[in-house]
Amino acid sequence: MPSFGLSLREETVGVIPPPPGVTPNFINPPSLQHIILITNIILPLVSLLFATLRIYTTGIITRSVGIDDYMIALSWLLACASSSVFSLLTRYGLGLHLWDVPFSTFNGHFIKFAAICGTFYGLSIMFSKLSILVLFQRYLPQKPKKAIYATIVVVILYSLIGSFEWLYACRPIEKYWDLSITRGSCIEWPKITVFSGVMNTVTDSVILFLPIFILRKVRLPRWEKIGLVLVMMTGGFVLVISIIRLKTTVDMASNPDITWESARSGIWWMIELHTAIVCACLPVGKAFLRKHFPCVVDYTFNNFVHGSQND
């Protein structure tokens, strides 16, 4: 939790002093709030579309519903909860400069709801990654699959540590969100946040390249093996967004203007959150296309095979 050395302030005084030459604006301040709200309306709808197509494909077309499908449904519900709480934070200053936010509006509300948002975020990311890994475990042919099981354990451990940081970050626990409490102590929350971001990026990299590692010794025709690897690697395509999100998180951790910086960083958190769900749904997309758009699959297949044969 950030420490600003603050005491209780009046409604007309911001949480922190403004930079030199800047006058606090409590009437019509610069704002990112409209971007936050638009983002958290569009992204859940996009991820819902892909999650629905996945459940439809495994439930109706292939009739192969597994625990990974339930995980992706749970991930989407948690992602929507995170997006909702993230939008709610605009009531307590998110998207405004911290010197434009009255202390009474911010204190006791902003960090508390930010912690709830982070918990939903971390659990949603965890279940989307687990969904991909369980899918690997179900369909990739090589056994034993120690690399998959090891990655599952790592994902669960760091996700729980990051998601429930607020439970152990401060003593007393209320000090985490109430800046008027001067007794007790807190750990350095930016380190936990950056740690979670680094682990997200690392595990995204593992998920991206794990199919290559597992399938490298499997005996399949060359074009078939490449196609299988590409299909399985779609689950890790969120890596690029994960790297951008990590960069914005590192920048936010060193900036006291957390209501503004966490808005910019948080938008990338939400993009990563819902993109992870989309990526987790892509590996089953071939069955959907083959059922409803067979010409697309046939065109891609023929070009891929002919290209491989020409090589």
Automatic annotation (TrEMBL):
Cellular component terms (Gene Ontology): membrane
Record field: transmembrane: 35-57, 69-90, 110-136, 148-169, 189-214, 226-246, 266-284
Highest taxon of source: Eukaryota
Keywords from the UniProt entry: Membrane, Transmembrane, Transmembrane helix
Membrane topology: Multi-pass membrane protein
Pfam families: Fung_rhodopsin
Subcellular location: Membrane
Chief location category: membrane
Residue stretches making up the Rhodopsin domain: 53-290
Protein family membership: Belongs to the SAT4 family.
Name of the protein described by the UniProt record: Rhodopsin domain-containing protein
Annotated source species: Periconia macrospinosa
Lineage: Eukaryota, Fungi, Dikarya, Ascomycota, Pezizomycotina
